[in-house]
Write a structure and sequence with these properties.
Elements: H1 4-21, E1 29-35, E2 40-47, E3 50-56, E4 61-67, E5 73-76, E6 80-85, E7 88-93, E8 96-102
Length: about 100
């Protein structure tokens, strides 16, 4: 029977090896969206920091930090939320929601 200390040592060593083999962070990803209300935007998703930079057709730019989500990627601040799942998503601005789809 192995001791708890030995098991813990192997667990820590395994985690350290796995972290070292993980390689570089994933590259940023960009997608274009068209929403049901006519809004057009380009979203660039970054890993460090975890965020979505939204560039709207009128030139307005907004960067939303990633927040906890049980499903999909969710990015939000106090007035705006962009929640993506698969090839679609939902943009909510000041309580007004619109469904969006990728153009790609």
């Amino acid at each position: 029977m192995s001791s708890p200390r030995l098991v813990r040592m192997f667990s820590i060593a395994g985690a350290a090896i796995a972290t070292g083999l993980a390689g570089p962070a994933l590259a940023d990803a960009t997608a274009r969206y068209t929403c049901g209300d006519g809004t057009a935007l380009t979203a660039t998703f970054t890993n460090d920091p975890a965020a979505a930079k939204l560039v709207f057709a009128d030139g307005k730019t907004l960067t939303l930090p990633q927040v906890i989500s049980a499903d999909g990627g969710r990015y939000a601040d106090s007035t705006t939320e962009f929640w993506i799942r698969g090839n679609g998503g939902r943009l909510t601005v000041s309580g007004k929601e619109t469904e969006c789809k990728t153009d790609d």
